[in-house]
Each structure stands twice: as C-alpha cells, then as structure tokens.
C-alpha cells in the first residue's frame, strides 16, 4: 500500500469520523434544545398557575371581607329577641301603643344551605300619624335586610275626643287623629347554633 493510499484512507476515516461526530453533536444539541424548550414551557405554565393561585387567594380575601359586610345586615344567631326588643323600644320612644303579635322563624332550603333563616314578625302600633309613620320608617331603616310583606293603616279617630271640634268649628286634620299600623315584615337571620 502506497503512502498516498494510506493518507487517502486515513483522511477518509477522519472525514467519516468528523461527519459522524458532527451528526451526533447536532442530534445531541437538538435534543437538548427540545428539552430546554419543554422545560421553559413548563416553567412558564408554572408561573401562570402561580399567578392564577395568587389572584384566587386575593379574590377569596376580598370575598371574606364582603361576606362579613353582608353578614352585618343579617340578624345574628340567637339575636331574634334583641331584634324585636329594638323595634318595641323604638315604638315606646315614639309614644306608641304597640304589640308584637307573632314571631315566626321559617327555614327554606336555599337559605338553610347558607346557614340562614327568615324571621317573620307581625307587629301592631297605634298613636298619632307622625309617630306611626316614624315607626314604619324606623323598621324600614333598621340596619338589617328587612322586607315588608304587608302594612295596613287604619285611622282610628280623634286623639282627643273633647277637641273633636276646634274653637273655629272645624274638625281636626287627619294628622291629628289616631292611627293603627299593622305590619308584617321579614328579616334574614343567621341560624342559631
């Protein structure tokens, strides 16, 4: 074998080894590149999930404060008597004759699932028009979720029969007469534990 043939064969082997090494290196780098892209994609997905979890936690915190604000408008557990006592106290402060005709607690499936129930109060108050009207407004403006189911207003007559006719011979105005308000209203209350 001549020296030229040996150099040619050796060059050929070195060239083939170089091509094989190049192919292997390219394949290896390509595989690493794929793995890097997959890892980068996984990291990006994890970051998106983390940001989503943070936003959910923030929303939950906001919901907790909003829930507590809403619960302030509900009668708290074991406080229905205090609720009615407040209404009676307001009636007495306005100089009205009053009577709590009934207090009924009603459960509905929807409210019961939320730990709430309804308190239905039947209440009667009588006295001067301004006082009766203020009483109705007082119930309406209670710091609770209150809904009137029914209000009946009846004019009873003169507040002072001796003054049924004034010195000028006129009858007293409607506002000077006694009125009776029969009310049925519902409030939402947290269930007793």
**Order of adjacent strands in the largest pleated sheet:** 1-2-4-3
Low-confidence stretches: 161-168
How can the largest sheet be summarized? Answer: 4 strands, antiparallel
Q: How much helical structure, as a percent, in the residues? A: 40-55%
Separate helix tally: 4
Through-space gap between termini:
105 Å
**Strand percentage:** 25-35%
The helix/strand class is: alpha+beta
Shape: rod-shaped
Q: Count all strands and give the number.
A: 4
Computed over alpha carbons, the radius of gyration is: 42 Å
Q: What is the H-and-E element order?
A: HHEHEHEE
| Arithmetic mean pLDDT | 78
Description:
The structure is a single chain. This protein is α+β, with helices and mostly antiparallel strands. Strands 1-2-4-3 form a four-stranded antiparallel β-sheet. The termini are far apart. The relative contact order is 0.13. About 4% of the residues have low confidence.
Brief summary:
By secondary structure, the chain is an alpha+beta fold.
Secondary-structure blueprint:
Elements: H1 3-71, H2 80-93, E1 97-106, H3 109-113, E2 116-128, H4 129-140, E3 146-158, E4 177-190
Antiparallel strand pairs: 1-2, 2-4, 3-4
């Amino acid at each position: 074998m001549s020296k030229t043939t040996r150099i040619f064969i050796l060059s050929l082997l070195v060239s083939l080894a170089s091509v094989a090494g190049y192919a292997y290196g390219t394949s290896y780098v390509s595989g690493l590149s794929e793995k890097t892209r997959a890892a980068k994609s996984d990291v990006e997905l994890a970051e998106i999930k983390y940001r989503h979890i943070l936003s959910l936690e923030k929303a939950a915190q906001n919901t907790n404060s909003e829930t507590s604000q809403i619960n302030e408008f509900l009668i708290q557990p074991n406080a229905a008597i205090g609720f009615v006592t407040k209404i009676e106290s307001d009636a007495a402060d306005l100089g009205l004759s009053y009577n709590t005709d009934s207090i009924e607690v009603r459960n509905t499936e929807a409210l019961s699932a939320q730990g709430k129930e309804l308190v239905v109060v039947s209440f009667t108050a009588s006295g001067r028009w301004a006082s009766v009207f203020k009483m109705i407004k007082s119930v309406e403006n209670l710091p609770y979720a209150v809904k009137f189911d029914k209000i009946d207003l009846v004019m009873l007559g003169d507040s002072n029969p001796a003054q049924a006719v004034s010195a000028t011979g006129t009858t007293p105005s409607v506002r000077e007469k006694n009125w009776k308000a029969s009310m049925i209203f519902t409030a939402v209350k947290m269930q007793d534990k």
